[in-house]
Amino acid sequence: MKINNRYIAVGLIIAFSLFFGLAAHADESDEATTITFRQPIQIPGQVLPAGSYLFKLESPDDLNIVQIFNADKTVLYATLETIATERPKPTDHTVVTLAEPVAGQPDVLMNWFYPGRETGNEFLYPKQKEKELAQDKKQTAVANRPTVSNSDATGGGN
């Protein structure tokens, strides 16, 4: 019996979003999005504990610099250089791609796509880490339907 890859992908997305409990709130001007992770997540240079984080572009003029704050934007955890990455079709949800490294290590954040955009941000890792990640299993997680928030990007929905 041949299983359609689309069914496998949809099943992984549903299972993954239930497992990580992603939730998102978005602001279009700087693509600010609050994402909640139920488990630690690795970003370039550090591991973030489980919790809610505000992802935003440093400047609407520079789409390749992403800042990660705590949910209330009082602590900046990272300012990261990214490269543009494409997806075949935009969705009305925030989407992230995570790599599953060896057992015992937190999942690694690979990509972040803002709702409605075909172009997203691919996070850059050192060459050795990139080689390891190329062999790891990837999962795409679709966050809950985002709510547009006010321009100060506090993550609260309107």
In short:
By secondary structure, this protein is of the alpha+beta class. Helices cover 16% and strands 44% of the residues. The longest helix has 16 residues, at 5-20.
Could you explain the architecture of this structure?
With 158 residues, the chain is an alpha+beta fold. It contains two helices and eleven strands. Strands 1, 2, 3, 4, 5, 6, 7, 8, 9, 10 and 11 form an eleven-stranded mixed beta sheet that branches. A hairpin with a 2-residue loop joins β5 and β6 (62-70). It is globular, with a radius of gyration of 15 Å. The chain starts with a helix and ends in a 16-residue tail after the last strand.
Arithmetic mean of pLDDT:
76
Task: Name the overall outline.
Answer: globular
Domain count: the total is 1
Please describe the biggest sheet, giving its number of strands, its sense, and whether it closes into a barrel: 11 strands, mixed
Assign the structural class, choosing from mainly alpha, mainly beta, alpha/beta, alpha+beta, or little secondary structure: alpha+beta
Oligomer class: single chain
- The fraction of residues assigned to DSSP E strands is 35-45%
Number of helices: 2
What key attributes describe this structure?
158 residues; 44% strand; eleven-stranded mixed β-sheet; disordered C terminus; alpha+beta; 11 strands; globular
Topology overview:
Layout (H helix, E strand, L loop, with lengths): L4 H16 L3 E4 L4 E6 L3 E3 L2 E3 L2 E9 L2 E9 L5 E11 L8 E6 L6 E7 L5 E5 L3 H9 L1 E6 L16
Parallel strand pairs: 3-9
Antiparallel strand pairs: 1-2, 2-5, 3-4, 5-6, 6-7, 7-10, 8-9, 8-11, 9-10
